[in-house]
Amino acid sequence: MHVQIVLFDGFDPLDVVAPFEVLHAGRTATAGAVSVELVSAEGPREVTGGTGGLTLRATAALDPGRPGWVLVPGASGRIGEPGEEAGEDTVPVLLGRALTTPLPELMRAAMAHPEVMVATVCGGSALLAMAGLLEGRPATTHHLGMDLLDATGARAVDARVVDDGDLVSGAGVTSGLDLGLHLLDREIGPRVAHAVEELFAHERRGIVWRARGPEPVAF
């Protein structure tokens, strides 16, 4: 199981570090059956995150044809007040900048590849939706971005983690822990996921939403 975690200018550090730590622990727990790397659309480079300016190094270019998972984080910045002109440090502007890079076309290629699956944390799903890549797909994001997700053609689901087969999305920033554990559970097995969960002293929250079973009757 190989996971490419994408860095772009303005990324949210916790969206990246939380799943990276979980998956790297999964590598140890499986004696190397899990691998994870930081990549960017432009190739190896230093990439600066949003609020706080944490810089991480992408060690390779995003390869949309490599079997495994591609994980897209959200951006870190101000949300802005209703009616306020979007500033340079706001999340919509940071996501918009990412859309002007090669990233959207690389993600389009990745999502078209039968052996590549995509995961997102927080605003990562909004980034893909803004690129027109989530039309009609159920997904989740930070609670402040649910309207944006709906408006850009995705089907916003208010859940901690949404599993739609080859697309798995996490909600707010700390959901990266839950998403990473879900990927380990799904791809490797519950014993490994449980061992990593115990190591991190973190209990996964909520039900992983899937489009299965009967529709619930309204309460």
Please provide a written account of the structure.
The protein is of the alpha/beta class. The protein has helices spanning 13-29, 91-98, 103-112, 124-130, 146-151, 175-187, 190-199, and strands at residues 2-7, 35-40, 45-48, 55-58, 60-61, 68-72, 116-121, 138-139, 155-156, 161-163, 167-170, 208-209. The chain has an 8-stranded mixed β-sheet, sandwiched between helices. It is globular and about 45 Å long. The mean pLDDT is 94. It comes from Streptomyces daghestanicus. Keywords: Glutamine amidotransferase.
Structural shape: globular
The radius of gyration is 16 Å
Summarize the amount of helix as a percent range. 25-40%
Termini Cα gap: 40 Å
Approximate strand percentage: 15-25%
- Beta-strand segment tally: 12
Mean pLDDT: 94
Order of helices and strands: EHEEEEEHHEHEHEEEHHE
Oligomer: single chain
Structural class computed from helices and strand pairing: alpha/beta
